[in-house]
Amino acid sequence: MRVPLSWLREYAPVPQDATAEQVLATMVSVGFEEEEVHRPSDEISGPIVVGQVLSREPEEHSNGKTVNWCQVRVVPEGQEQTLTGKGIDPSGIQGIVCGAHNFEVGDKVVVTLPGSVLPGDFRITPRKTYGHTSAGMIASVRELGIGDDHDGILVLSRIGLDPELGADALELLGLDDEAAEINVTPDRGYGFSIRGVAREYGHAVGQPFHDFVLDAAERAPEATDDGGFPVELADAAPINGVPGCDRFVTRVVKAIDPAAPTPAWMSSRLRLAGIRSLNLPVDISNYVMLEYGQPLHFYDLDEVAEKIVVRRAEPGETLTTLDDKQRKLDPEDLLITDATGPIGIAGVMGGASTEVKQETVDVLVEAAHFDPITIARSARRHRLPSEASKRFERSVDPRIQAAAAQRAVELLTELAGGTVQPGAGDVRSGAAPAAAPVLLPESYASERVGVDYAPERIEQVLTMIGCEVRPLPATGDGAPGWLVTPPSWRSDLSAPEDLAEEIARLDGYDKIPSRLPIAPPGRGLTEAQTGRNRVLASLAAAGLTEVLNYPFVSQEENDLWGAAAEGTAVPSVSLANPISEARGRLRASILPGLLETLRRNHARGFRDLALYEAGAVFLPGEKLGSAHVPPGAVALPPEVLEELNAGIPAQPWHLGMVFAGQDAPTAPGVAGRAYDWQDALDAVLLAAQSVGVQLTVRQGKHQAFHPGRTAELFTADGDSAGWAGELHPQLVAGQNLPERTCAAELDLTAILDARPDGVQAQDLSVQTPATQDVALLVDADLPASTLTETLAEGAGELLEEIRVFDVYQGDRVEPGKKSVALAMRFRAADRTLTADEASASRQAAVDLAVQRHAAVLRG
């Protein structure tokens, strides 16, 4: 919220010499975060005064351009020029060349004299041009930085000004003003108004606040049956039982002057507040919105047919909004309609058919109160954020509509010469929404904040922010306290915690003591947390880089990565309000986000990547969600808890890794090695070994992985624990991934559950090992891991280690077969093995392989 200081001074005790920085410092003390200072004088300075055109002589030049040689008086007649400097004439009459033609002799204009500086560091100096020395410039609104119009110079009489010659034009146009911008959090929507900021400023400096809105409410006429304009509230599909509109105030102003200009003071304040001046009626509606916090909408009365009906959209309806875009309406959209159909999306943007135009003379004023949820959903659905929706979705005071409409019609009559029609329309849907009282025990705030607040101070603070405070004496059932009814503009105060926060905020955050908390007794990290930390640390030590991604994916990504078989539909959790329609599900696999990170980094020039991420995936069962929504801070019976827990999807932790490029950058004497499927497999095995788990590796098939370079991993119990390998070439090409990208995903929860109960360190043997190799000819489709398991089983307890060191297919190996060479190490705990013992154990292993797999021993 940008707050012009001249505007704030009208309603708050801001000193005349206070700067925007000082105002921001004051607002910080009551919990508003400072954003920025907006000061036009930082870009424009120097002698910029009001002048009057004495003569204008058109001159046509050889380039085909006609310019005006002007004499402009910049001091009152009979007075001497007090400004001095190069190019400033002591007589007070400046000779100026001007290329614009939209002014006449006698017009008062803005003259930038030599020595002045305009936005963009445009410095004004005397210069020779078109045969004259032009000592200054007659300025346009664009050159002054106060608008976009560059069709001609700014003629002051056309914006309702008749100032004295030589007057400071910066002060006249509000360019000497400044604005303090504060950040308004979503729960404090009242801060999006001068009313709210002035109130908070008064709290900060300890001065009472006079609510000027109450004055306008007293001036507003009573609602009458024939006043305003006929309105019907017909919301047939309220959200959560709350009507989309519960109050709709209308006023009618006729015979306004369509040519009436927006006063300079109003346009300058709107500009500083970040709103562009358009025309007087629109500017008035924006001005009142900023001042009161109540969005208004003005209609061209002649374009509104019969009566207004506030209802939900019907299927197939469309509306062309003020930005000239046709929008397809949703049945949940709340509309303002007349006999012709929709004329506006309630609380978001009006329709083009009834907008106030340059020729509009009769205006219908709307001041309504809308449901925040309805407005927020419509604004997001149509991607149409507006100043109005920003306020409505944060909740607007439901009791100021009549006052805001009164303020608007007063400005229309004062500035546009309109005539207010008697009476007012005020249609309501039931009783006005009222804040629920909150029970606040006397010691509540002190216990939670850590400051000993006196009861008198608590009552003072709550009364100051507008609450109705009713003391409650101590009884046998409870401690003393208060029943606090929040004011209508503070919908965020609904619990004792909110009131305690207000007490701390206004009494001063600086009074809260700083104390380090004492660590409670406990057992530290859980076993699962310790295990996860050990796994992640092992990968970081191996040179991989950890990343974090959002858990939001598409259904197609869940189907691709969440199931090994192609065409399998994976159950997933859909999001009610996704940040993107393309990412409307919770992930069933951790790899989609990892691959997106790899793709983005690779596109930006990072070619060698080894990334990992650990996080929860979401795997719903047969039941998802619950129809029972329990209230907060209420103990639930076991059966309700059981029903709620049954609807929560399983959320195991998964570990994902992706590899692309080389394991080391190429350098003199160093040749980088391209990552391959073995790196992905080694990383998975390293992760499991870091927590004492041995995984079995078998060749697997997964729709997203290369058909011949995929490993499936199993725990000792035979449960599948994940996948590792090279991604499918078609997938790599289709998703624009680096060539030969490799990946792995491990069920980290399953790995941690498979840890042995206790890890016993093995004794270091002092006996000499015996090593023997064996080469076996087996079927080409027999996994090496299966052969290894068979040999280990046959060799018996003397076998200490077995590993594959070569696999060969080619010459002298018949088609459909492969030669697998393995190294076997034997050792006895109590003696040195003889060669015969090692050979016997080796032969037993070979015999079992021959029996099970028809293996042939190669010589």
Automatic annotation (TrEMBL):
<dbReference type="InterPro" id="IPR041616">
    <property type="entry name" value="PheRS_beta_core"/>
</dbReference>
<dbReference type="GO" id="GO:0000287">
    <property type="term" value="F:magnesium ion binding"/>
</dbReference>
<dbReference type="GO" id="GO:0006432">
    <property type="term" value="P:phenylalanyl-tRNA aminoacylation"/>
</dbReference>
<keyword id="KW-0963">Cytoplasm</keyword>
<dbReference type="InterPro" id="IPR005147">
    <property type="entry name" value="tRNA_synthase_B5-dom"/>
</dbReference>
<comment type="subunit">
    <text>Tetramer of two alpha and two beta subunits.</text>
</comment>
<dbReference type="InterPro" id="IPR020825">
    <property type="entry name" value="Phe-tRNA_synthase-like_B3/B4"/>
</dbReference>
<feature type="binding site">
    <location>
        <position position="502"/>
    </location>
    <ligand>
        <name>Mg(2+)</name>
    </ligand>
</feature>
<dbReference type="GO" id="GO:0005524">
    <property type="term" value="F:ATP binding"/>
</dbReference>
<comment type="similarity">
    <text>Belongs to the phenylalanyl-tRNA synthetase beta subunit family. Type 1 subfamily.</text>
</comment>
<dbReference type="Pfam" id="PF03147">
    <property type="entry name" value="FDX-ACB"/>
</dbReference>
<keyword id="KW-0820">tRNA-binding</keyword>
<dbReference type="Pfam" id="PF17759">
    <property type="entry name" value="tRNA_synthFbeta"/>
</dbReference>
<dbReference type="GO" id="GO:0004826">
    <property type="term" value="F:phenylalanine-tRNA ligase activity"/>
</dbReference>
<dbReference type="InterPro" id="IPR045864">
    <property type="entry name" value="aa-tRNA-synth_II/BPL/LPL"/>
</dbReference>
<dbReference type="InterPro" id="IPR005146">
    <property type="entry name" value="B3/B4_tRNA-bd"/>
</dbReference>
<feature type="binding site">
    <location>
        <position position="498"/>
    </location>
    <ligand>
        <name>Mg(2+)</name>
    </ligand>
</feature>
<dbReference type="InterPro" id="IPR045060">
    <property type="entry name" value="Phe-tRNA-ligase_IIc_bsu"/>
</dbReference>
<feature type="domain" description="TRNA-binding">
    <location>
        <begin position="42"/>
        <end position="170"/>
    </location>
</feature>
<keyword id="KW-0547">Nucleotide-binding</keyword>
<dbReference type="InterPro" id="IPR033714">
    <property type="entry name" value="tRNA_bind_bactPheRS"/>
</dbReference>
<keyword id="KW-0030">Aminoacyl-tRNA synthetase</keyword>
<feature type="binding site">
    <location>
        <position position="492"/>
    </location>
    <ligand>
        <name>Mg(2+)</name>
    </ligand>
</feature>
<keyword id="KW-0436">Ligase</keyword>
<dbReference type="InterPro" id="IPR009061">
    <property type="entry name" value="DNA-bd_dom_put_sf"/>
</dbReference>
<dbReference type="InterPro" id="IPR004532">
    <property type="entry name" value="Phe-tRNA-ligase_IIc_bsu_bact"/>
</dbReference>
<dbReference type="Pfam" id="PF03483">
    <property type="entry name" value="B3_4"/>
</dbReference>
<feature type="domain" description="B5">
    <location>
        <begin position="433"/>
        <end position="514"/>
    </location>
</feature>
<keyword id="KW-0694">RNA-binding</keyword>
<dbReference type="Pfam" id="PF03484">
    <property type="entry name" value="B5"/>
</dbReference>
<keyword id="KW-0648">Protein biosynthesis</keyword>
<dbReference type="InterPro" id="IPR002547">
    <property type="entry name" value="tRNA-bd_dom"/>
</dbReference>
<keyword id="KW-0460">Magnesium</keyword>
<keyword id="KW-0067">ATP-binding</keyword>
<dbReference type="InterPro" id="IPR005121">
    <property type="entry name" value="Fdx_antiC-bd"/>
</dbReference>
<dbReference type="GO" id="GO:0000049">
    <property type="term" value="F:tRNA binding"/>
</dbReference>
<protein>
    <recommendedName>
        <fullName>Phenylalanine--tRNA ligase beta subunit</fullName>
        <ecNumber>6.1.1.20</ecNumber>
    </recommendedName>
</protein>
<dbReference type="InterPro" id="IPR012340">
    <property type="entry name" value="NA-bd_OB-fold"/>
</dbReference>
<dbReference type="GO" id="GO:0009328">
    <property type="term" value="C:phenylalanine-tRNA ligase complex"/>
</dbReference>
<keyword id="KW-0479">Metal-binding</keyword>
<feature type="domain" description="FDX-ACB">
    <location>
        <begin position="765"/>
        <end position="858"/>
    </location>
</feature>
<dbReference type="InterPro" id="IPR036690">
    <property type="entry name" value="Fdx_antiC-bd_sf"/>
</dbReference>
